[in-house]
Amino acid sequence: MTDVHDIKPIIVPKSLPMAAIWIVSTLLVLILALLLGRYLWRRRKGAPDIPTLTPELPAEENARLALNALAAERLVDGRRFYFRLSEILRRYLFERYAIGAPEMTPEELQPLVAGLDLPEGQRGVLNRFWSHSEPVKFAGHAALETEMAADLEEVRQFVETTTAAYKTAEAAAAETPAFIQGEG
């Protein structure tokens, strides 16, 4: 029984010095006072300003502004030019006809465009544009400035033509009564 030892006595931990307790308490009170002051300061400023909302521009205005900005840039890099022009056209199609054009390839867009009520010849404009711009964007084909200017003008004309047709159709729909009464 020599290997069994008696239980050790209980060790009483030393208490914190009173100065440490006062320092920690003072820091907590200061932090709480700062938080309360910050809360009251924010509350004193009053209600936050209500942001002024400006109405969104119509699809054709967004397209016109973007086309004018692109024309003003005078990009000589055909690849960047056609990426920007394609983006403008896709955004216009998205805003005007509510199709997911920005995320689609031309091959995915063609069936959707075929189902749209576009003015005569406008589907051909889109097909020519895509067949001309895609090789410049992705295959490294060179683009002449005259071709770039012609394509910019063609997209601008597409926007104007489809806008006029859209507004005509919208006006005709407004004149048609919501329901037609039966003869009685």
Task: Tell me what you see in this structure.
The chain is mainly alpha-helical. It is 65% helix and 0% strand. The protein is built from 6 helices and no strands. The chain has helices at residues 18-44, 59-73, 78-97, 106-114, 122-138, 145-175. The model has no long low-confidence stretch (mean pLDDT 85).
Quaternary: single chain
Largest sheet: none
Kindly estimate the percentage of residues that lie in beta strands according to DSSP.
Answer: under 5%
Uncertain ranges: none
Distance between the termini: 118 Å
What is the radius of gyration? 35 Å
The backbone outline, from C-alpha atoms, is: elongated
Alpha plus pi helix count: 6
Mean pLDDT: 85
What is the helix content?
A: 55-70%
Order of helices and strands: HHHHHH
- The total strand number stands at 0
Q: Decide which structural class fits the backbone.
A: mainly alpha
From the structure above, extract its key features.
184 residues; 6 helices; mainly alpha; 0% strand; elongated
Summarize the model shown.
This protein is mainly alpha-helical and 184 residues long. It has helices at residues 18-44, 59-73, 78-97, 106-114, 122-138, 145-175.
What is the element layout, followed by pairings?
Elements: H1 18-44, H2 59-73, H3 78-97, H4 106-114, H5 122-138, H6 145-175
Helix pairs in contact: 2-3, 2-6, 3-5, 3-6, 5-6
